[in-house]
Amino acid sequence: MYCSTGGVDPTVRKDTWQFMFGLYPFLSTAREREVMSAEHHFKYHQLKARWKTLLTVRASTYVDATRSSVVTVFYCRQPINMKDIRKAVRIIDKDVPRTDRGHEYFKGSGNPHLSILRNILITFAAFHPKVGYAQGMNDILSRFLVVLDSEVEAFWCFSSYMETIQTDFMEEGMLRKLSGQNRVVGAPLNTDFTFELFVCVAMLQNIRQQLLNCRDGTEIFQSVSG
């Protein structure tokens, strides 16, 4: 009744995604969902506050005793690698401004939805150290944010979805993809190079057919830049 060639009908898409992507169990009652919603909000804002406090304190040359003790409590609950999170923040800050700027939801200078996107990505990276942040996650998250229009719900649905595809953003998953590409290109690929170069090769493999259809250097440059 609510299905179409474009997927779930837009009028019920948000409600459907809440169940499809693990925000609520399918058999939960309305009352149970109210309780879970409150828990989701509390937990998310706690997680976000932790990395924000840590980044603020670590960047400051002076920390008072009260503030320091709060950070210690947060840090002991779940260790955060500050080096990794700073690296993630640098990449996220480059990717977020380029995310779906043609979409009405993200258009305009100083769009608050971009700040929300940034907060979610950093929160995810901080508390999922095995995965962290990788380019492309911003595009996946943007879909959740557009449909759900909620920072908290987008975070939990995105996190749930990432559990099923996280290996695609890790070295082992990319190696598996490249091994599959060996059969496509008909020759073995040398993977004895840095991870950064490896990522570049993986990205080029994804647009291989598009590159083959290019007629000149200008079109190749446009394909790679786009």
TrEMBL record:
SUPFAM superfamilies: Ypt/Rab-GAP domain of gyp1p
Gene3D superfamilies: putative rabgap domain of human tbc1 domain family member 14 like domains
Domain Rab-GAP TBC: 7-226
UniProt keyword annotations, A-Z: GTPase activation
Xref: InterPro entries: Rab-GAP-TBC_dom (IPR000195), Rab-GAP_TBC_sf (IPR035969)
Alphabetized GO MF terms: GTPase activator activity
Transmembrane segments: none
The protein's name: Rab-GAP TBC domain-containing protein
Organism annotation: Branchiostoma floridae (Florida lancelet)
Upper classification of the organism: Eukaryota, Metazoa, Chordata, Cephalochordata, Leptocardii
